[in-house]
Write a structure and sequence with these properties.
Layout (H helix, E strand, L loop, with lengths): L11 E8 L3 H11 L4 H9 L4 H20 L7 E10 L3 E6 L5 E6 L2 E9 L2 H40 L11 H57 L24 H26 L1
Antiparallel strand pairs: 1-5, 2-5, 3-4
Helix pairs in contact: 2-3
Length: 279
């Protein structure tokens, strides 16, 4: 007896019809999510870099929403029980080619169907057991880590031992001796400070007397100089100013002509004198 056909699988379905994509391209993506949990199928589709993955993700989300709203099923208990792509209508177009011929262009379409169903009880039990094991393992590791931390701090306290309170007791005789010693040191320090202040005052007075004597001696010397000394003449170095060079006479056109005439006349006189000597 033949089994259940793919299109007759029980469950909640969503169908996308006449999508402009070939059924071959859609089937490559549907093969990735067939039999997977709904959550895992969504993760796979989000990580698949294909146009068909985007479209199939929308169809899967629609099927999960139908199961939640119409069948009141828990989305965490759903899985992809069946998914397939059928060929739709094909659009015929023509392209001109050489020698007056034409080539057919086929624009394919497809119908994408995704069916989700509730997981069987045995798979649900295994899934819940696996999740509980993971959560208990995490909790046990956290508790062990916290206990190790508290145990380490307790071991340090045990190694150090209990803290013993330390108290200092001073007798009355010791207190009296401390008071007398402080009084004696205070008196000595006071005498020393008074003597230092007196010495500073004496030094300041001597400095003032020396300054006054030096000022008076300077005034007397200046007065003596004003009375007997003659004013000294201040000799200033004579500054010899160089005379600027005389401007050169500017030769004009007439001057050049006169000089050329003078030269010619001199040459003529010299020639005449030479002829006379010859004669």
């Amino acid at each position: 007896m033949p089994g259940v056909k793919t299109n007759e699988v029980a469950g909640t379905r969503a169908v996308l019809r006449h999508y402009r994509m070939s059924a071959y391209k859609a089937r490559e993506v549907l093969d990735l999510i067939r039999g997977r949990d709904a959550d895992r199928a969504e993760e796979i589709l989000n990580a698949t870099p294909r146009e068909a993955a985007r479209v199939v993700h929308k169809v899967l989300a629609s099927a999960v929403a139908n199961a939640r709203n119409n069948e009141q099923l828990d989305p965490d208990d759903l899985y992809v029980s069946a998914c397939y792509a059928d060929e739709g209508t094909t659009l015929k177009r023509w392209r001109p080619r050489a020698r007056g011929r034409a080539t057919r262009i086929r624009k394919r379409t497809c119908h994408i169907t995704v069916i989700v169903s509730r997981l069987p009880e045995d798979r649900l039990e295994r899934r819940r057991a696996r999740q509980s094991a993971v959560t208990t393992g995490l909790r046990s590791r956290r508790v062990a880590a916290s206990r190790r931390g508290e145990g380490g701090r307790g071991d340090e306290r045990d190694a150090l031992g209990p803290e013993e309170p330390t108290e200092t007791t001073v007798s009355e005789n010791e207190l009296e001796e401390i008071d007398t010693a402080s009084d004696d040191t205070g008196g000595v320090e006071g005498d020393a400070e008074g003597s230092e202040i007196d010495a500073e005052l004496v030094v300041d007075d001597e400095d003032e007397v020396d300054v006054e004597e030096s000022v008076s001696s300077d005034d007397g010397a200046e007065a003596h100089e004003d009375d007997g000394a003659e004013p000294q003449a201040v000799i200033e170095d004579e500054v010899v100013e160089e005379e600027p060079p005389a401007p050169k006479p500017r030769r004009t056109r007439g001057a050049r002509k006169s000089t050329t005439k003078a030269v010619e006349s001199d040459d003529g006189d010299a020639g005449g004198a030479g002829e006379e000597e010859k004669g």
